[in-house]
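[Target chain]
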Amino acid sequence: MRMSLAQRVLLTWLFTLLFLIMLVLKLDEKAPWNWFLIFIPVWIFDTILLVMLIVKMAGRCKSGFDPRNGSQNMKKKVWYLIAMLLKLAFCLALCAKLQRFTTIKLAYVFIPLWALLIGGMVELGYNIFYVRRD
């Protein structure tokens, strides 16, 4: 299944809107829901992205795949997978902290997010300064 850019944008907006509505209801104390329930749109969206990414990565294993320029593409996909897992770790740690399941310091909760942001900055710098221009 290949989604067009318009479908991906619409899906992103839909899940973001659902998450923000649920977040506002929780912060206004209109909904006494668990924080893990508030993040359900985020979990669903991330699951869809992870499945699509894993399917693309598994597509390299099929017979007849042309491996030219594949190593760079695979490195990028591995970075995307790591980034998704860091985001998932941050969201899980944040929900656990907000729900008071853990007494971990808030600074430790943000470590996966900081690692994700630093990795994003490194990738941006690499793409700006070191990508060969033909």
